[in-house]
User: Fold Pantetheine-phosphate adenylyltransferase from Natronosporangium hydrolyticum.
Amino acid sequence: MPHGSTGDLGSARAVYPGTFDPFTPGHWSVVDRSRRIFDHVTVLVAVNDSKQPSQAAGARAQEIRGMLPADWRNVSVAAWHGLTVDYCRRHGCGVIVRGVRNPADGLRESELGAMNEALGVSTLFVPAQPELATMSSTVIRTLRAGRAGG
Assistant:
């Protein structure tokens, strides 16, 4: 069982960061499974300067908030510009949750996880459910663009 910044079992706070442009069924699955492990999960809508999302981080965060069931009381959504580790330190989150769809994701995420571990925050990798492994925000945006243009 992971433990939060207090070191006590059962007091774990986690962050699930991402661009979430858009929030996919795979993201939903990771949040659902994570909320069952941790006392609290923050879906952290990140600003990534290398990406050009369709909406500002605040608008994406608001949209995600509206998608989550009301009974998921241990899940919150926040927009953040900066390092995820800095958010974790400010808010007492001891674990970063990352979804992994395939071996390429695994390699990239393990490199980020090692860096975050060196900065004092552990990473939990959550494998994609098989039926969701091929779904990505990029795929959804491409499908939406095809429908809009066709």
The longest helix spans residues 103-118. Confidence is low (pLDDT under 50) at residues 1-10.
